[in-house]
Structure formats: C-alpha cells, structure tokens
Design brief:
This protein is an all-alpha fold and about 475 residues long. It contains 20 helices and two strands. The protein has a two-stranded antiparallel sheet. A hairpin with a 5-residue loop joins β1 and β2. α10 packs across α17 and α15 packs across α16. The protein starts with a helix and ends in a 22-residue tail after the last helix.
C-alpha cells in the first residue's frame, strides 16, 4: 500500500509537474544565456585550471570536486541500469538532453550561490539556495522549507536508496540470501558510517577520498574496454537508443513508465542539476567573479552524466546481455561487464559500489549539516540534538538495505522533486541577477578589464551582500 502510494505521487510529480518546470527553466536559462553551457565550454575548462588567488581558501576546482563527489555515486551505475531496464534504451538519450539543458540551470544556481554567499567569523564563505531565497527573495519561510526538503532528500531519500543499491550488488553471488544478506550489508554499512560521522574513522574517510576518484577513472576505462570488445554491436546500439527515444507513440501510450521519464528521473538523480545541492559547495569557493564558479559547475554536470552515466549505458547496451525488470539495477551492469572480464567483473562493480556508496552517504550528511545550521538560526545545533539526528540517519541507512526497490526509488524521487520545485522557480525569479553577472563577466573579459565583481556593477543592493561590496 505504501509503495503504491509513493509510486502514484512519484508519477504525478514527474509527469506533468517536474517535466514542465524543468523543461521551462532549462530552456529559459539556455536562451537567455545564449547557451552558456555550450558557448563558454572552453572558458570553463580554462577556469578549472586557474590557480587560486589564496591557497588557504577553497579554490574553484576544489568546490567543483566536492560537488562532483556528491553527484558521482551509485546512481551512475544502478540508476542508469534501472532506467534502461524499466524505461528502455532511449532513456540514455533523454539523460543526455537532461544533462545539456540542465547544465544551464547548474550555472544559474551556482552563480546565485556565489553572489549571495555569507561570511563566517573566520572570513570563510558558505551559502546555497536557502540563503539566496532568504536574502534576495525575502522569503525566510520558503528558505526554511527548502532546508526541510533537503534534509528529507539527503538524510532519508538518497540514503535509503544508496543503501539499497549497494546491497543489490550482492544478488549476483551464490551466497546471497534475500532475507539475511540485505540485513548484514545494511548493518555493516550503517555501523561504519555511524563510526565516521560520530568522529571516528578519519583514516577511512581520507583513504576513500583518494581511492574514489581513481575508481571513477578505472570504471570509465573498463567500460571502454567492454565497449571496444563489443565494437561490432555499437552501430546497432545507437540505432536502438535513438529509435526508442523517438518512439513517441509508445511514450505517449504510457508516459510515466516511458524511456523519456525514466531518463529525466535518473538523469536528475545522478547530476542533480537544478536540485539545489551543488550550490552549497559552490558558495564556499574563493573566486574573483561569481560567474567563474557558475561556469566551472557546468563541467561537474557533464562529468557526471556525459562521462560516467554514458559509460554505464554504452557498456551495458553494447554487451548485448538481456535487459528486463528482473536484472534492473546492479545485476544488469554486472552481467554486462562479465562478458569481457568474467567473474572478476561483478567483483569490481561491487567494490566500486561500496566506495561510491560510502562517500555518497558521508557527502549527503555534509549537505544536511548545512541545512540544520540554517534552521538553527545559522548556528551549530546542540550536540545532543546532532547525536540523536545521526543515530536516526544511521537507522535510515540500515532500513534502506531491507526495503523494496520501488519504495526506495520513489522516496528518493519525491523528496528530490520537492527540492527542485522550490529551487528552480526561485532561480527563475532571480535569473536576471545571474544573467547580468554573466554579462558583466563577458563584457570585462572582452574589454580586457580585471575580472573582478562588485554588486553595484549590476545594480544590486549591497546591504543584502556579505561579499562583493
């Protein structure tokens, strides 16, 4: 009953509500910025390599890596597989469209986060959607509601799903037991995560922060090997992707379960463009102009979807292994990689998922800490409250491993959708600020002027700003 209700809410939220909102916002930002995510792609690359002015502050590259780390996770593997198995191969195409159009939304939200970032006692910057909603829109209640949905998304929805996705990778092994394996995996993951968030496990966190980027590169390389090994299937693979993506008769016959909606859902879940999470990291960067961080953040969306998600999709489809609801998730990816690497392939996927899941869980709780601080009058909540909250978060991680797949995906989709339905309209209302900021950046670059920003340059009320005065 609960799963059915969640699925009904999920279906309505994404079609027609979020589909319309995301399409309008993405096209609106793309048109007004003249395709900033494509037009200034070379500039984004250049800025990524730009050395920081102050090595003690968070650089543009570091902030981008933090947001990329939060984006890259189990969704890049299991989310893509689920979309293809349940929606069809055309979901891959709609993920690409979602990525390119959504990158403009990522530029807007990250630029706004920079413009309206706040300053702490140490002079460091922080911020995010809650802060630009509160300061620029003068809507503190809406900002608070956004934080509530963020907490529901990252501490509950995403962590339920992350835990479920990890335990599902063990289904391919002979020792897997439907009753006990999820309990054991969920218990171990919850205990290790709890140990780290309660102050221990610093070495574990440091080790995984080094290993995960390496694992991400290794995953792409292995995907390329599988694709090359099945190179004769590649023409047919692209044929079925585009044929399914443009089979509008089939799509209109069942929109909620179509490749288009699955592609949009899983694309949004993976790259989070417009959701309002990445701006929390973007606000911490020390840059001379807000538009710089907005441009760099578009690259994070591309890395997540055009690189990692596409690697999963093309590896699976080129392998030719059977796809259906029964293998949706990790088994489909493990079956695909087995065609070239045999028994080693599924083990590699399991190891990758363990590392991705662990860093995703910790990254999710980092975003939650920021939201709790905002709700507690911009101050750290009492230690007793945080301890109780962390205990609840650990229990959620355990629960995620034992609940049904449909319930896990639906819960994550709904809470993420609620965040997006606050953040994207807010970005549209404040879009002129971000677009004027971009124009200021381009004009100064064209004239050879120093790429420095002041709020008064675009007519902002400097009393609303902590920086850029």
């Amino acid at each position: 009953m609960i799963t059915h209700i969640l699925n009904e809410i999920d279906s309505f939220m994404y079609y027609p509500v979020l589909l319309v909102v995301m399409a309008i916002a993405g096209l609106y930002f793309t048109c007004l910025t003249k395709g900033v995510q494509i037009r200034l792609f070379p500039e984004s690359i250049r800025l990524l390599m730009e050395p920081p002015a102050d090595k003690k502050q968070v650089s543009s590259l570091q902030a981008m890596l933090v947001s990329t780390a939060s984006r890259v996770g189990t969704g890049n593997i299991v989310g893509v597989s689920t979309a293809i198995c349940l929606g069809g191969p055309g979901a891959c195409f709609w993920m690409w469209i979602m990525c390119i159009v959504g990158a403009s939304s990522a530029f807007i939200e990250s630029t706004l986060a920079q413009v309206y970032k706040r300053k702490n006692e140490k002079g460091e910057s922080f911020g995010g959607p809650a802060y630009y909603i509160e300061k620029a829109l003068h809507a503190p209640l809406l900002a608070g509601l956004f934080c509530v949905f963020l907490i529901a998304t990252y501490a509950v929805g995403f962590n339920l799903l992350c835990s479920y996705n990890l335990q599902s990778t063990f289904a391919t092994y002979s020792f897997y037991n439907k009753t006990w394996t999820p309990v054991i995996v969920g218990g171990i993951l919850a205990l290790v995560t709890g140990y780290c968030i309660f102050g221990g496990g610093k070495r574990i966190v440091k080790l995984t922060s080094v290993i995960v980027p390496v694992m991400g590169v290794a995953y792409v390389l292995i995907s390329l090997i599988v694709i090359c090994a099945n190179i004769t299937n590649v023409p047919h693979m692209f044929k079925i992707i585009f044929a399914d993506a443009f089979d509008f008769k089939s799509i209109m016959g069942g929109v909620a379960g179509s490749c288009m909606i699955y592609g949009i859902k899983r694309g949004l879940y993976s790259n989070e463009a417009g959701v309002g999470s990445a701006p929390n990291a973007s606000a911490s960067a020390k840059v001379s102009h807000p538009a710089k961080q907005g441009l760099v953040q578009t690259l994070s969306v591309y890395i997540d979807t055009l690189l990692l998600c596409t690697a999963t999709a093309l590896m699976c489809l080129s392998s030719g292994v059977e796809r259906n609801a029964e293998v949706s998730g990790a088994p489909y990816v493990q079956n695909a990689i087995s065609t070239v690497f045999g028994h080693i392939g599924p083990t590699f996927i399991t190891v990758a998922m363990i590392l991705f899941a662990f860093t995703t869980l910790l990254g999710n709780l980092f975003y939650v800490d920021n939201a709790l601080i905002f709700l507690h009058h911009k101050k750290e909540p009492p230690k007793w409250f945080m301890n109780l909250f962390y205990v609840a978060a650990v229990l959620v991680i355990f629960l995620g491993a034992v609940i049904p797949m449909d319930a896990a995906w639906a819960a994550a989709d709904i809470t993420m959708g609620l965040m997006t339905l606050i953040n994207l309209p807010a970005c549209m209302l404040l879009g002129k600020v971000a677009i004027d900021t971009l124009k200021d950046y381009e004009q100064k670059r064209k004239n050879g002027e120093p790429l420095e920003f002041k709020g008064k340059d675009i007519g902002l009320n400097e009393e609303e700003l902590d920086f850029w005065k």
